[in-house]
Amino acid sequence: MTPVAKRAGEEIDFEAAARECRPFLLQIAVASTRNPSDAEDVVQEALLRGYRGMKGFRGDCPLRIWLSRIVVRVAINHHRSVARRLKRWVFFGDMEFPSDDGTIHEYDPPDPLREFDRERMLDVRKHVKRLPDEFRLPLMMLAVDGMTVPEIAAVLEIPEGTVKSRIFYARKRLNATLRTKKRR
Amino acid sequence: MNVDCHWIEENLERLAFEDDRLAQGHLAVCAHCREQIESLRAIDPMVKQVFEYDLAIARSPKRRRSPVLIGAFGTAIAAALLLIVAQVRQPASTPGTPAPPAMTSKIPAPEPATSPKIQNPGAVTGRAKPEATVPDRPSSVPREARQADRQAPEFLVTDLAGYSRTLNDYRGYVLIFGVWDSKDPQTAANLERVYKSVSANTKIRVLGISEDREVKPANTTFPSAVNQGSQLLGGKAGDIVVVDANGTIAFRGSLRDESSRLLRSVQSALTALGIQK
Ligand SMILES: [Zn+2]
Fold first, then answer.
1. Reported pTM
2. Are A76 and A133 contacting, i.e. CB atoms less than 8 angstroms apart?
3. Distances (CA, A) of B73 to A27, A81, B60
4. Which residues of A touch B141 (CB under 8 A)?
5. Is the ipTM reported for this complex over the cut 0.85?
6. How far apart are CA A42 and CA A79, in angstroms?
7. pLDDT (tens digit, 9 = 90+) per residue, A53-64?
8. Which chain B residue has its CA at the smallest distance from A145's CA?
9. Which domains are present in chain B?
10. Within 10 A of B172 (CB to CB), how many other CB atoms are there?
């Protein structure tokens, strides 16, 4: 039996399971948060909450799905609290927080795809970040290593049909935005 | 039925990701609809690149947040670090002094005061660190992890996004993989049927593996991957294999079988594993 598939009541080596899930959870965090430099903090916070709340784990889904749900919740709240904090501190004026559309970031990773038009990718990125959470999350989650529609549905706790239609709406909206821009 | 721009628009969601015979005629003559579908299909690869970019940021070492935050919290953090360093160094430099309270920044880092909420009989100690429970009773995890590592050379594929996958990535899930044969369209078609029949189940993962970087046949939607010279647990072109959540082979069959018979045998293998549709 694998520890991630264990039922409630059976012991779970949380640390080992968490260590194993971590790379996956980081991807979920990246897909969920608007600011990727928060993703590590989000995972950390989610694991802490998960550890404290293990009693609530019924074992009716894999542990990594259960933890992913916490990651999503933390990521969305994290963003909101950062936004709140920003408003409070805004009079300092010189802050370098990444904005909602991700136009400012602290770290510029080397482009792994040399062929790819970086400008265009950053433009797409800006528009992805502007999508409302309910559309952005399923669309980005589809990019997570090995994520499938049923799994996204399990993490977001919405029906598969809803996941599909939201992903399609997100694609369509992005497509429309990018095409309008191109024509201009 | 009249296949026109309107019909294409109505069926866009479906058409964007599968080729449709009805649509082909119209798409051949209508540049507008063709462009619409092509650009829609280009969205996911772009989103994937956005995701990869963000992931690289997330994995990069954190740099300064902002001048304000450094001003406000930097001093506090520096002070805390100094304290930690002082506490850790102390016993080494002055042997004989009582050991300081354990300072851990391990992940996950539960509050020392809370006791573990995880049932772990035989490992109830005053220490709350989850890993403190490990020495008392050998955990099943490292053994299984090692097992999965040993199995890795037997199964190594790359998915379309370029990620390497081993059986370890599917632990906790039932993996159904088929090695489709480009010379026998029946094999991909059958795998598609299997995929459709189980795709609602979140405990199951399906993978269509090709031996070369061959283009997946049209009208197939199963997740695909390319074999990286691994033995695929003995699976050859045209084979279908069901691997249970522990990485043990539960069923072997052939994608060349007649569809309904194949579906039945896969289903009974899943039932034997306690998995309902
Ligand atoms: Zn048309």
1. 0.49
2. yes
3. 28, 17, 21
4. 3, 13, 16-17, 20
5. no
6. 10
7. 887 787 777 888
8. B163
9. 5-88 (no CATH), 129-272 (3.40.30.10)
10. 22
